[in-house]
Amino acid sequence: MNSSMEVHLHGINIHGETMNMILVWSVALSSILFCNKISTLIAPGTTRLCAFLPVFCIFFYLPLRLTTVHFSGTTSFFITWLANFKLLLFAFDKGPLFSDPPLPLYKFILSACVPIKISENGNKSSLEASKSGESGESRPNGRRSESRSEKKRNKSPVNYSVKFMVFVLLLNLYNYADHFNPLIKMALFCVHIYVVLDVGLAIVAYLARAIVGFELEPQFDEPYLATSLQDFWGKRWNLMVTGVLHPTVYLPVRSLSGRYLPKKVAPLPAVMASFIVSGLMHELIFYYLGRLKPTWEVTWFFVLHGALVGLEVVVKRQVNGRFRLPAVVSGPAALCLVMATSFWLFFPPFLRCETELRSCKEFVAFMDLLVHGRFVGANDVSCPYF
Predict the structure, then answer these.
(1) Least enclosed by CB within 10 Å: which of 120, 197, 268, 374?
(2) Res 49: pLDDT
(3) Residue 375 pLDDT > 80, yes or no?
(4) Is the CB of residue 5 less than 8 Å from the CB of residue 291?
(5) Which is it for the CA torsion 130, 134, 139, 143, positive or negative?
């Protein structure tokens, strides 16, 4: 980490960062209210999009006001990426923010700035929101999508019990972190993130459903069970991102390429465009996390996987079901490829930001606030696991 970044981090304690977080989200909520009001005055289309442009710029700026991993990472993901893309769709009366009749204000605000979708209640907008969350180059029919979605929302308690045990095991392994290769340590940390997000979002989803009838969009669908790269990226990993990339990038590019390219290859530019946009947004979030000059490794990681998924689509169409690798072979091969390329291109910039160390220190500082009621700087505490 460069010296200017360290000085900046040392100058911010949990109290100051909390005040910045309140300010940032107050501005974000005010901007979303503005968009909601403007939509009643301006018809959908380019004019409404132009009216939203100042909000887009504000949302790109807001994470720069935060320096902690948890606050800047969450804000950049929820606001800079998801909210901006949802508002982009809403400018044309599309996406999860659009409904006829219009969504109540509280539902509009929560749907815009939090990764949730309204529980299906039989109305048209709920069905559209649910369908927009399912993406990937080749999508299953409606009945199969609904059953898969229901399966994701109703995982057994055993599933979460096992993941909790994995989490406890990881905490014990961290005591021996000094003996691990940095890449192995990073891989364990990524499993840690997945388990915490999956279990944590399930708890929040239960509370949201019980209190206001809302349901969180699934973030993961057991990615370790993926049978191919296409299955991994399109239907199992980071589904909130998949849900916004499909209508904002994939479908427009697919419609355009379909005018000039044969039907068999028309989806390929759309697949590639989706991965490129994802790579650029990840690059931006990494910058928010570490404020280090981009090396574009993360972007190239997604460009590579876009090309590989496109190749997979072409091969599948060429063989046309005449030959299919057993899932027991294709699944592990896909996961190994993801891990190998992650070690090569994705993890290095993540490690350079010292994200795992900083997030651990922030957690310790937060626990100190809860237990002792005192604000301390994240850099003034030590992390027992790193």
Answers:
(1) 374
(2) 97
(3) no
(4) yes
(5) negative
